Amino acid sequence: MKTLAVGIGCRLHSSAEQIETAVRAALGSHAFDEIGAIASIETKAHEAGLLEFCARHALPLKLFSRAQIAAISVDDPSAAAREHLGIDGVCEPCALLAAAAERSDPTSARLGAHAPVALVASAQGSIAPNAADARLLVRKTIHDGITVAIASTTAQPVRAQTNHAPQEQDPS
After folding, report:
1. Would residue 161 count as lying in a domain?
2. Is the pTM of this model over 0.90?
3. What residues contact residue 124 under an 8 Å CB cut-off, 6+ apart?
4. Which residues pair with 149 in a beta bridge?
5. Is the pLDDT of residue 57 over 50?
6. How far apart are CA 34 and CA 4, in angstroms?
7. Model confidence over 129-139: pLDDT tens digits?
8. H or E element, residue 140
9. Given CB 3.0 to 4.6 Å as the disulfide criterion, which of 71, 95, 167, 168 pairs with 149?
10. Which CATH number do you get for residue 56?
């Protein structure tokens, strides 16, 4: 069952292979086929490596605005995200928002084949889907400059996750 939303923050020109390695490292004992959606900030809408990764695995890419992301509290703010994007983080808020969006519109996962990239706007007119319904299963991990977090509204965490390296992401 596809219950995981994977939030990704990446440097400009990150390759699909780098993104895949980072996602697989963050998954731990979760299965790759549990992933229902990939999520990032709207400025990554044309990021070739991210688009290729999603296409390769037939995963929808959900994009969120800075305002939507800023509405989500981040426990471990990123200096790079603050400097380059004006927000406290990308991967954790995006994972939470995507998981909440999946819960509020479970048919959206099926849209992946027809609309692989979608800017998610709340139907209620609020800034963000109700991210309180989602929780992080894997907090921000950093691998080769790519940050990954995993959230769900249904799955259970299987292990504690720590940062793999003290690298900062350059989200531009």
Report:
1. no
2. no
3. none
4. 7
5. yes
6. 6
7. 566 778 999 99
8. strand 135-143
9. 95
10. 3.30.420.180
